């Protein structure tokens, strides 16, 4: 018999098994973030030219571990928690086959430990990408395969839960938008993991001598079907988290279910093609293949992100205006709860992902512009804007929300929690921006010594490049402090936070009557459809529901256009290549 | 909390979309199409395009080709390691080899002359990163890529390796001189 | 009660746009989401790499 409890603050129903799985995955994720963050500090202090902390061999080992921990383990553990939340909690459904979900979780833990053990053994410093014929120890690949299979089981448990919810009619109409977003993330995850298996299983067999040769170009092609798509899981999932937090904090309703879901549909069709971004300067791939894939088929997935970029803040603006914050274009934004880390994390994630991560990503993914950016430190600059400012900050916001709701604990150090998103965002924006700037001066990524000490030829990057890397180093340290603060608050709240009995105080203003949060065998009432409102009648004078958001969107577009053409200008100045 | 609830209408696709979203989608779509067509346009009118000419090749064959070129066109040697410097005739095929941890040989080219630059690695992946111009090309072992390059400024250029290739990756450099 | 619900849904289904039916069907979406990149990115890409000619010398 499935046991449920209702959260007195939010009215959400938690299935006990699903709840425990969410907790386990979220905690495992935060542990990986913690490890990834400590490693980040070592990377930062080595690439900061004035400090240059680690010797070369440890640097490459630490960099490999940092990538795997932060980019794969932290993200995917947390995504599993989000899937179970979106499938079970949001749909008021029991989780399908919790035992399989636990099996998947255990496999993910074993795989993660195995791969990290291989890396810290010192003989698998092959970077996250592990391009063949460079060879890692067999259990490096095996660990990743086991981790991926565990995650795949989680994805199928999620899809199974959708079936259970539909059959048991736990909700009316279509699934909520947030659950739909999670479904999209799950689908992208399945393609990602299948691609990973396709390439890592043969590579494992090669590493134990069972297969004699893996083609290096094929490896890159299929590895990136996993490597890039895994970041697209993050995009789909963190957009869902934006909608979720906008819904919880503001009671925002999507401006249009049709527009938001159609945008997600574009993700399903086109987002994963962008794996081609990594192969634009590879030998032998045709122009047609590159154009079609690098542009996500005419940038239709970019269109989708630009749509979400309007509809998420737009939904917040509409909700705020309904509460009477109607002065000028931006009163709704000025009077948003900037001191609430759930909101501030989410909104910084949205803005940072759009302005820093999104624009730079599209520019560098342009077929020809890749020539001046490929494998420079511009690339880490870009993806620290997408996966750290974008995804990680969205996850942090969600964690702040879940501490009282899921874990039933009061947050410790609320004052520090208020500051944390700003500290982290400041540091990581510096990392992103100054790495990108250093990349335009040609500084290489994954490189221990930009001074090339010991090489008789000698080469010096311009002094500006050293300055930029130094500033990025300062930013990195600030970012690590912000990240450490998050880990302290999150883990500290789980261990030392006051246990909440009836009331949390944080979210009570959102209209759900208080109830005991005890488990019962009673099946929750069916999830009703959103209350109907005269949506269409609500347009402002100009027919614009969210004029402030429209202005912000236009600012984004103008920055995008300018930055895009600046890069073409840079490109036009380099040697002719044809 | 309506993004957490099923849509208000069963038939939500039929609910009309507000003017604001429609205008934004139209603007964004136009921009997306402009970005898309910039790429084929640059193929037609731009001077920097990544070529698709490539061949499968074995390390031994490629090494032989490189040695043959060095024998023909070598002009001097550089550094204590006696790395040969090659000055190929205008428009010639130039074979550059990447290996752990060296770009081999060094090249002496002329400004505004187009060469067929062949790139290949005989061991792992390497990254051809020409500085300070900032041209970056992936070098994949087993695949020879041919770039028609036209240096547009005289000077001394360095080839950095920007694809991680093991413990001495950071010391992997090469040189190209461009003369007037 | 259950029967009533069923008739309700059947009637609704007739008016629902095919786009909404696609979006409401996670398994169809799964098929699209896996097939698209498999065909256009992976298979097409594998064919391109496989058809690179051997060096003429």
Give a nutshell description of this structure.
The complex is a heterotrimer of chains A (578), B (180) and C (57). Chain B is α+β, with helices and mostly antiparallel strands. Helix content of chain B is 23%, strand content 37%.
What does it look like?
The complex is a heterotrimer of chains A (578), B (180) and C (57). Chain A is mostly helical. Among the domains of chain A are: 12-250, Cytochrome c oxidase-like, subunit I domain (Cytochrome C Oxidase, Chain A), CATH 1.20.210.10; 342-448 and 459-497. Chain A has helices at 16-47, 56-89, 98-120, 138-167, 177-207, 216-250, 257-270, 287-294, 296-322, 331-334, 341-364, 378-405, 414-440, 463-496, 547-572; strands spanning 4-6, 13-15, 576-577. In chain A, helix 3 runs antiparallel to helix 4 (138-167). Chain B is an alpha+beta fold and 180 residues long. Chain B has helices at residues 19-45, 59-73; strands spanning 54-56, 74-78, 83-86, 93-99, 102-104, 106-110, 115-121, 126-131, 135-139, 143-150, 155-161, 173-179. In chain B, the strands form 2 sheets. A 7-stranded mixed β-sheet of chain B has the order 2-3-6-12-11-8-9. In chain B, a hairpin with a 3-residue loop joins strand 8 (126-131) and strand 9. Chain B starts with 18 loop residues before the first helix and ends with a strand. The model of chain B has no long low-confidence stretch (mean pLDDT 94). Chain C has a domain at 15-50. The model of chain C is unreliable at 1-11 (pLDDT under 50). The chains are: A mainly alpha (578), B alpha+beta (180), C mainly alpha (57). Chains A and B meet through helix 2, helix 6, helix 7, helix 8 and helix 9 of A and helix 1, strand 8, strand 9, strand 10 and strand 11 of B.
């Amino acid at each position: 018999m499935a046991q449920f409890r209702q959260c007195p603050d939010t009215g959400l129903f938690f299935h006990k098994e699903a709840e425990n799985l969410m907790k386990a995955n979220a905690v495992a994720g935060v542990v990986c973030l913690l490890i990834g963050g400590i490693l980040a500090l070592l990377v930062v202090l080595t690439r900061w030219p004035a400090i240059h902390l680690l010797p070369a061999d440890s640097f490459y080992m630490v960099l490999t571990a940092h990538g795997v921990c932060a980019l794969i383990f932290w993200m995917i553990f947390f995504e599993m928690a989000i899937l179970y939340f979106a499938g079970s909690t949001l749909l008021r459904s029991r989780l399908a086959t919790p035992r399989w979900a636990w099996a998947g979780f255990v496999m993910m833990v074993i795989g993660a430990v195995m791969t990290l053990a291989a890396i810290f053994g010192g003989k698998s410093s092959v970077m996250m990408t592990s391009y063949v014929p460079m060879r890692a120890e067999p259990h490096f690949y095996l660990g990743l395969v086991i981790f991926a299979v565990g995650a795949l089981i989680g994805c199928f448990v999620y899809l199974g839960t959708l079936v259970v919810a539909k059959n048991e009619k736990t909700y009316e109409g279509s699934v909520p938008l947030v659950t739909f977003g999670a479904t999209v993330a799950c689908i992208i995850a399945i393609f990602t993991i299948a691609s990973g298996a396709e390439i890592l299983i043969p590579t494992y067999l090669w590493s134990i001598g069972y297969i004699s040769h893996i083609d290096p170009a094929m490896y890159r092609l299929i590895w990136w079907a996993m490597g890039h798509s895994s970041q697209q899981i993050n995009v789909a999932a963190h957009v869902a988290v934006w909608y979720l937090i906008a819904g919880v904090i503001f009671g925002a309703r999507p401006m249009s279910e049709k527009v938001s879901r159609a945008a997600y549909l574009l993700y399903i069709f086109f987002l994963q093609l962008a794996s081609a971004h990594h192969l634009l300067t590879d030998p032998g791939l045709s122009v047609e293949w590159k154009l079609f894939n690098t542009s996500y088929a005419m940038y239709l997935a970019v269109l989708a992100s630009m749509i979400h970029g309007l509809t998420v803040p737009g939904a917040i603006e509409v909700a705020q205006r309904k509460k009477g914050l109607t002065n000028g274009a931006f009163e709704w934004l000025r009077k948003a709860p900037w001191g609430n880390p759930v909101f501030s994390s989410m909104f910084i994630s949205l803005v940072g992902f759009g302005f820093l991560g999104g624009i730079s990503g599209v520019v560098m993914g342009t077929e020809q512009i890749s020539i001046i950016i490929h494998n420079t430190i511009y690339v880490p600059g870009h993806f620290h804007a997408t996966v750290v400012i974008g995804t990680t900050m969205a996850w942090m916001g969600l964690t702040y929300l879940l501490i009282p709701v899921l874990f039933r604990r009061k947050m410790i150090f609320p004052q520090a929690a208020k500051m944390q998103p700003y500290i982290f965002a400041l540091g990581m924006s510096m990392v992103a921006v100054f790495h990108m700037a250093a990349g335009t001066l040609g500084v290489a990524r994954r490189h221990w010594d930009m001074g090339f000490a010991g090489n008789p030829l000698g080469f010096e990057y311009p002094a500006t490049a050293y300055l930029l890397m130094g500033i990025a180093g300062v930013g990195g340290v600030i970012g690590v402090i912000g990240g450490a603060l998050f880990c302290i608050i999150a883990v500290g709240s789980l261990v030392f936070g006051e246990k909440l009995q009836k009331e949390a105080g944080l979210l009570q203003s959102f209209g759900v009557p208080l109830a005991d949060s005890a488990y019962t065998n009673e099946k929750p009432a069916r999830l009703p459809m959103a209350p109907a409102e005269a949506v269409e009648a609500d347009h402002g004078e100009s027919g614009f529901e969210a004029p402030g958001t429209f202005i912000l969107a236009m600012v984004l577009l103008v920055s995008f256009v300018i930055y895009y053409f600046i890069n073409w200008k840079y490109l036009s100045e380099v040697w002719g290549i044809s | 909390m309506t993004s957490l609830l099923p849509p208000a209408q069963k038939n939500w696709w039929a609910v009309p979309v507000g003017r604001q979203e429609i205008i934004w989608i139209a603007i964004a779509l136009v921009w997306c199409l402009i970005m898309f067509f910039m790429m084929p346009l640059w193929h037609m009118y731009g001077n920097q395009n990544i070529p698709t000419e490539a061949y499968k090749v074995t390390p031994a064959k490629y090494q032989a080709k490189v040695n043959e070129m060095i024998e023909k066109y070598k002009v001097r040697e550089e550094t204590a390691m006696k790395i040969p410097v090659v000055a190929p005739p205008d428009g010639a095929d130039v074979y550059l080899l990447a290996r752990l941890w060296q770009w081999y040989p060094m090249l002496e080219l002329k400004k505004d002359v187009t060469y067929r630059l062949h790139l290949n690695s005989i061991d792992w992946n390497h990254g051809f990163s020409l500085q300070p111009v900032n041209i970056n090309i992936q070098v994949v072992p087993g695949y020879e890529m041919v770039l028609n390059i036209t240096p547009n400024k005289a000077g001394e250029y360095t080839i950095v390796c920007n694809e991680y290739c093991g413990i001495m990756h950071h010391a992997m450099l090469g040189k190209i001189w461009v003369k007037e | 009660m259950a029967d009533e619900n069923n008739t309700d849904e059947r009637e609704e289904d007739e008016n629902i746009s095919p786009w909404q039916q696609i979006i409401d069907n996670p398994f169809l979406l799964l098929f699209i989401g896996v097939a698209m990149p498999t065909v256009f990115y992976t298979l097409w890409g594998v064919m391109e790499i496989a058809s690179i000619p051997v060096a003429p010398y």
